[in-house]
C-alpha cells in the first residue's frame, strides 16, 4: 500500500513540476537557467517514478 501511495505522490509531483516548468518556459524562454533547473528537477522525479514502477514489476 505504501508503494502505491508513493507512486501516486510522485505522479502528482511530476504534474505540478511539469506545469511550473511550462509556465516558466513560456514566460522566460526555454533556455533560461530557471527553466533548465526546473527541467532537471523534473528529470529527478521522473527517474524516481521509473524506479518505483520497475520495483513493482
Mean pLDDT: 92
Number of structural domains? 1
CATH architecture designation: Irregular
Q: How many strands, which pairing sense, and closed or not: the largest β-sheet?
A: none
Secondary-structure element series: HH
| Helical percentage | over 70%
How many DSSP-defined strands?
0
CATH class: Few Secondary Structures
Q: What are the segments in which pLDDT stays under 50 over at least 5 consecutive residues? A: none
Topology (elements, then pairings):
Layout: H1 2-28, H2 33-56
Helix pairs in contact: 1-2
How is this structure best described in words?
Helix 1 (2-28) packs antiparallel against helix 2 (33-56). The protein is mostly helical and 57 residues long. The chain has helices at residues 2-28, 33-56. The protein has one domain: MYOD Basic-Helix-Loop-Helix Domain, subunit B. It is built from 2 helices and no strands.
Characteristics:
elongated, 57 residues, MYOD Basic-Helix-Loop-Helix Domain, subunit B
Quick summary:
This protein has 57 residues and is mainly α.
Amino acid at each position: 500500500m505504501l508503494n502505491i501511495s508513493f507512486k501516486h505522490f510522485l505522479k502528482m509531483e511530476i504534474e505540478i513540476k511539469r506545469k511550473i516548468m511550462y509556465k516558466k518556459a513560456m514566460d522566460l524562454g526555454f533556455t533560461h537557467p530557471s527553466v533548465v533547473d526546473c527541467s532537471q528537477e523534473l528529470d529527478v522525479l521522473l527517474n524516481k517514478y521509473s524506479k518505483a514502477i520497475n520495483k513493482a514489476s
